[in-house]
Specification:
By secondary structure, the protein is α/β, with parallel strands linked by helices. Helices cover 24% and strands 25% of the residues.
Length: 206
């Protein structure tokens, strides 16, 4: 069984790869992805369920992780999961910042922030609510829409973010044919929101 290193000097890695950010405000930008293992949110429609089981992870030193990111030629690094804020991310962020890499975070917002980030994307879930303190720090609010009821939840979260936070709605992939027209209609009526799609899935790349 993998034990959590409270110091954050080692982290359980599900996978690392260099690709294109496929969704949200930063879609289309090259980025090195660090997917941490372990999640206590467990969305039923999660497309990375392989990240939930921390016992299958490879525990790595954050210095080695940062060196691999640097060697990829990436300028941007995405820390994702799983739920990355289950861990102390300060040491990893410090290592990445030493190499002048831009650090982006993808989180459900259910744990307190650790580390410093150039971009924080909070993707909240109605069945495990995000912390107000994390919503307040978000640069991007990305709400996955799987049913009409999610629009009210999206507005509730939007009321807690900073004025400059970018608001995006994204169709849940398996329900995209049903909810995408609803999102389009909602964004046209509420243009403070943007529509996001999972470009990497349409193009069939990681």
């Amino acid at each position: 069984m993998v034990e959590v290193d409270l110091s954050g000097l080692t982290l359980p890695i599900c996978e690392e790869f260099y690709s294109i950010q496929g969704e949200g405000v930063n879609a289309g930008n090259a980025a090195y992805f660090i997917r941490l293992a372990g999640c206590d949110v467990n969305c039923k429609w999660c497309d990375t369920k392989q990240s939930w089981n921390v016992d299958n992870a490879t525990v790595c030193n954050v210095e080695d992780i940062a060196k691999r990111a640097l060697s990829s030629s990436a300028q941007n690094v995405v820390i994702t999961g799983g739920e990355p804020l289950m861990y102390n991310l300060e040491p990893l962020c410090q290592q990445l910042e030493r190499y002048c890499l831009s650090v982006w975070l993808e989180t459900s917002g259910t744990h307190y922030l650790s580390g410093s980030f150039d971009w924080i994307c909070v993707s909240p879930k109605s069945f495990k609510l995000p912390l107000d303190e994390v919503l307040e720090q978000a640069h991007e609010l990305k709400v996955v829409i799987s049913s009409p009821e999610d629009f009210d939840f999206a507005q509730q979260c939007a009321s807690k973010v900073a004025a400059e936070c970018v608001l995006t709605m994204q169709p849940e992939w398996s329900a995209r044919e049903t909810v995408a027209p609803l999102i389009l209609d909602y964004v046209l009526k509420h243009p403070i929101w943007k529509m996001s799609v999972q470009m990497h899935k349409y193009l069939n790349f990681k």
